[in-house]
Amino acid sequence: MEEFPCEVIRNFSIIAHIDHGKSTLADRLLELTGTIETKSTGLNQQVLDKLKVERERGITGGPSIVMDLLRFAAQSVFQNDLLTKLSMIHMAHGKQHLLNLIDTPGHVDFAWEVSRSLAACQGALLLVDASQGVQAQSISVFHIAKERGLKIIPVLTKIDLPASQPERMAAQLQSTFGIDPSEILHISAKTGQGVEAVLRAIVDRIPPPSGNINSPLKAFMFDSLYDRYRGVISLVSIQDGIIQKGDKIASCHTRKKYEITEVGVMHPEEVPTSSLQPGQVGYIACNMKESSEAHIGDTFHRVGALVDPMPGFQPSKAMVYAGVFPVDSNDFIKLEESIKRARFHIRFSLTLTDRSVTIQRESSTALGQGCRLGFLGTLHMDVFRQRLEDEYDANIIITAPTVPYKIIYKDKTVMISNPTEFPDTSDTSCRVKQVQEPVVNASIIVPEEYMGEMMNLCFAHRAENLDHRYLDSGSTSEASARAILTCTLPLSEIVTDFFDQLKSRSSGYASFDYEDGGYKASDLAKMVFLLNGKPVDALALIVHRSAQHEVGKKWVKKLHKVIPRQLFEVPIQAAVGKKIIARETLSAMRADVTAGLYGGHYERKMKHLENQKESKRKMKRIGSVDLPQDAFFDILSTKSN
Ligand SMILES: Nc1nc2c(ncn2[C@@H]2O[C@H](COP(=O)(O)OP(=O)(O)OP(=O)(O)O)[C@@H](O)[C@H]2O)c(=O)[nH]1
Prior knowledge:
The chain is an alpha+beta fold. Helices cover 27% and strands 32% of the residues. Its main location: mitochondrion.
């Protein structure tokens, strides 16, 4: 592939709320520039099926069909999934331009990944569905792009839809982001209307990357992947200088030295080039053996020519944790493998890095050996869980999600991510000074008639600092005004069913987004459930004291409903510290399942015994109480809390 000087290069991203049509627009741009063929192949369906989970949730990491297709093609053909960036060539003003589309995950859980990708861009298309208008995530991604100083090209899409209201939405973009309506492009990515103008705007409005080919090499690593044969492949954006095969480079972060074995760009698959120059975004392969050597946000320089490193990033931290256990403890190794495979797939489909899901072994007296997984957010966890359950047919139990708490003692601070580790704060000898929980700054956008409902929902989830303002005045008779409601919420309150309730109580109209709001002191306690006097560690919860009686009562009722009767009476209790705060009693039942069957019914008797054996196999024995797998599912199902 020919070399492109800096001034004809444009590095951009598409930022949008989920489902606003990012993938469709990317497909159109790739088609218009001849990067891919216009006609989709029958393969697409196959690929879509493979990515069922992400499809169902309506999220993809990038230009859907193209990306997915290439990801899978690349996996099988080249054993390489370096596809978070695509290059297109476009003729404008009599010159060929190289347009690099850099993929972003575009979801609130992955804010860090979004800024990581945007760091390699000079501009972004802010894509807004003209029938839906500005949504919560449009706002958060806009701010990230703005903070990074990117040129933003506002684009209203889906104008072919009868429900689209481009004029009204343009006014909304103006009032929300201060965008001049004359700068807004009106397109339909589906029919292709106006998409040419998008290519023109990318060339005309986004500045070329700056950089000097004669300065010392400075290459910024914004992503990395592992290739079985070539080791770590890094995606880099060249800030200054030039990089080519045979060059000896070093990492600013680890000081380790490497020799470049290959450089190239994605067009759309890997195309080796003789060099990468300032402004170019491409891949480099060097003799980097371990993923642990690759640090996202690292800067490479030529050996012997030190440069100031680019500002790096704070990698994202796991914010939601859950335990995963095999129903049959012999399956632990199999489960661990499934988890690793699921992690691999999620990483590609959501454009995440290797370390996006943290895994630690965990053992529970109730559930045996398992893993404690850490996720970036609830969506991340849900997608992962669904993939484990669906695609790997994993016979697993997943515990209720929890968030990391800060326990401040007189002499130290400890972070805990498992309720079983939570200290008994009512015990005066435990020396806990304060307990803090993570909070988020949440924003919800809804039509005004749902405001009351949304406020109630927020208050029921311990919201503070509630505020609201209007985004527009609902200029047409059929469209009501939309408002943005902001508040702080404890993260633990949104990891269960908050999102589902938000959707159902707003008839699907509310959009929700949040950002990290730090830690806040809170009056929390550990709630333990006892079956026949024995605590079940896997069921332990952390509750706000104001809700402990309500939560305790609800859970013992739920346990009472799902635990089958045993041969003896079983008290089911909820305790906080030493205090029992709720109780139900499960009455005893008869033992012999065949007792009612008299002589001559040998086959029936055997069948009953077989059935009993089968259901015993699926039981978890908690102390002396048998709990069927289904009961655990029911108890731990977050949706029915
Ligand atoms: N009518 C119409 N539909 C469109 C247009 N652009 C996208 N769509 C449809 O909108 C839906 C979402 O489009 P996608 O391109 O998958 O959206 P996305 O933003 O990539 O979604 P995620 O990657 O899952 O976040 C699909 O059903 C598209 O067919 C458009 O211009 N007009």
